Amino acid sequence: MTTVELPKSENGLHGTLTVPGDKSISHRSIMLGAISHGTTVVNHFLLSDDCLHTIGAFRELGVAIAVDGDQVTIEGKGGFNHFTKPTKPLDMGNSGTSTRLLLGFLSHQPFDIDLFGDASLSKRPLDRVIKPLAKMGVHVTATDDNFLPVTLHANPRLRGLDYQLPVASAQVKSALIWAGLQAEQPSHLTEKLITRDHTEKMIAQFGGHLEQDGLEITVTPQDHFEAQQITVPGDISSAAFFLVAAACVPGSQITLKQVGLNQTRDGILKALDQMNAHYTITNRSTDSEPAGDITIGYQALTALKLGAKDIPAVVDEVPLIVLAATQARGTTVITGAEELRVKETDRIATVTEELTKMGAKITPQPDGFIIEGGTKLHTATTPLDSHGDHRIGMMLAVANLIAGGNSVLNNADSISVSYPEFFNDLDQLR
């Protein structure tokens, strides 16, 4: 367990920062590069623990992957069925994205594959992926039918699937898309709500094709993809920590360069809009994954309401929105966020527990929060704890900036799961 004294800011945050590459896109670039014809080069790749576990898994499957700084080169295998049998179980670490997506991606291999993860990941449910895959003919042996470790059994055939997703989850959707590409018949998926669409965009970028109509996705079997050169935009989920910090710490004014602006991921910006925050976006790109420079400074915020339809675009940023709401005028209500219960931690419980240590007035709900705004946060008299959850750890670092305090954080090493350079980047702005 790593314990650190959290940094504080005397005069607000200032300057310009390029946040690391998007985690979701980085994961998927490895997967698509691995099955493509030719050599894929990925620039501004996120070298976090989660993404390194995806790289490690594909190396075990016989894919040549080279890492040079934040540039990653993948030698494609030219299809789904050219991997080699791993000599040992695939280590997922703490990566739910790697685990759920690979269950679909590797569902048509001619050999058994074992997957395991750390203690936290081994508590996260997999039945939401395993059950629909079973309808396609996939046989997975899971711990208590729901958890890692699992064995993904050899499977010579996959049936098409007609399925309504019971949860709004891009991970589940993506796993089923990967499997659908390898099935013998087309698959028809219906989302509960629109979720992040990086898988769909990247399949198109690599020469594949999906049919989409609102919540409906048709996946036609296909196995030919062409290698690409990709520049990964900055991860808006990482940028969100600095956006909220700048908006809530007096005297702040920062610019974040080339942050991803995918419309299925910009919920933090829409939430800030609701809170009457003001920011500017300049230097917009016109790539498949849009990006731009975001400038924001300190300002008075007002309470907001978030419901189920808002959550998919902001699910990773809800802890930060709760923190911002403690500083806003009025009472904030967040509902429809029960998915937070099955993240790296029960984020409804951990956000409430940890921010309460700093004087926040939060009432947890089964599917969200009620937050009383206008609270003056203070240094926690007992150590704060990430509970092994990277986003909780970074949110608490921002909370300490707002409090102007000297709180101590236990389990700070969890932050490297998605943002190894977080504290170094924060120092650039202090």
Model description:
The structure is a single chain. This protein has 12 helices and 23 strands. It has helices spanning 23-35, 49-60, 96-105, 127-135, 170-181, 198-205, 236-248, 267-274, 318-327, 347-356, 390-403, 422-429; strands at residues 4-5, 14-17, 39-43, 65-68, 71-75, 90-91, 113-116, 140-143, 147-152, 162-164, 187-190, 210-213, 216-219, 229-231, 253-260, 279-282, 291-297, 305-306, 331-334, 361-365, 368-372, 384-385, 408-410. A 4-stranded mixed sheet has the order 2-15-17-16. The chain has a 4-stranded mixed sheet with strand order 4-5-3-14, covered by helices on one side. A hairpin with a 2-residue loop joins strand 4 and strand 5. Helix 1 (23-35) packs parallel to helix 6 and helix 7 (236-248) packs parallel to helix 11 (390-403). It starts with a strand and ends with a helix.
